[in-house]
Amino acid sequence: MEFARRRAHYAKMLDRRVTLILSVLSVAMAAFASCSANAGQRDDFLAGRTLECAHCDLSGENFKRRDLTGADLTGAILRGANFHDAKLAGAKLGGADLSGANLNKADLSRAELSGSILHDAMLYAANLDAAKCATADLTGALMATVRLARSDLSGVILKNADLRKAQAAEVNLAGADLTAATLDFAFLRGAVLSRAKLMQASMVSAELTEADFSAADLTDADASGANLRAANLTRADLAGASFRKADMYEAKVDEARWHDTVTPDGTVRP
Fold first, then answer.
1. Could you give the CA distance from residue 24 to residue 32 in angstroms, rounded to a whole number?
2. Which of 147, 175, 249, 265 is the most buried (most CB within 10 A)?
3. Other C-beta atoms within 10 Å of 129: how many?
4. How far apart are CA 86 and CA 107, in angstroms?
5. Which one, of 188, 172, 201, lies nearest residue 227 by Cα?
6. Is 247 left (phi over 0), alpha (psi -120 to 50) or beta?
7. For the chain, where are the E strands, in sequence order?
8. pLDDT (tens digit, 9 = 90+) per residue, 117-162?
9. How far apart are the first and last CA of the chain?
């Protein structure tokens, strides 16, 4: 009786071990199949046989002048990749890592870039008109002469970014972090910059007619020579900012904070 009981116990233990081994093998085989499928998709994408490569690792790859219109690169790793003059209109790049990537002159109009990482990326003369870039991180990005008309950049990080001569009419930069960013001679007519952080930002001779800076922080910003006609600066923090020779005709400054602020005529408002 005791022997039969022990045999049944060991048989049960063996069944459990076999079940566990089969489970581990099943997971391993699934992972292997997934990796193989991903590798095949990556090869097909590089060869131009497909435009879908979500979550692929394409770091350092060369896509110069490639037509990738509508491509799906959601969550892809694209660090240091070359997209110079590439066509990426309508492409899906949400959550992708494009740190250090070359996107100079690339067509990214209507592209989805929400949540993407573009640290130190190069976007000189790139076209991002009507692109969706909410919450993207563009710290240190080189974006001189970039096109951003009617793009959604709400909540983006643009610390130390170079946006000189950017063409960004009606761009949405609400809540964006533009600390120490350079926007000299940029065209931002009708732009939304409410609650934006513009501490130490440079906006020398920028076109800011009817721009919305309500509740924005412009501490120590330089807007010398800027056109701020009819701009909304309600509740904005203007401490230490310079508006020397700026055009502020009909600008709204209700409840704005003035402290050591240089006014258009050169006087300092305490």
1. 12
2. 147
3. 21
4. 6
5. 188
6. beta
7. 261-262, 268-269
8. 999 999 999 999 999 999 999 999 999 999 999 999 999 999 999 9
9. 99
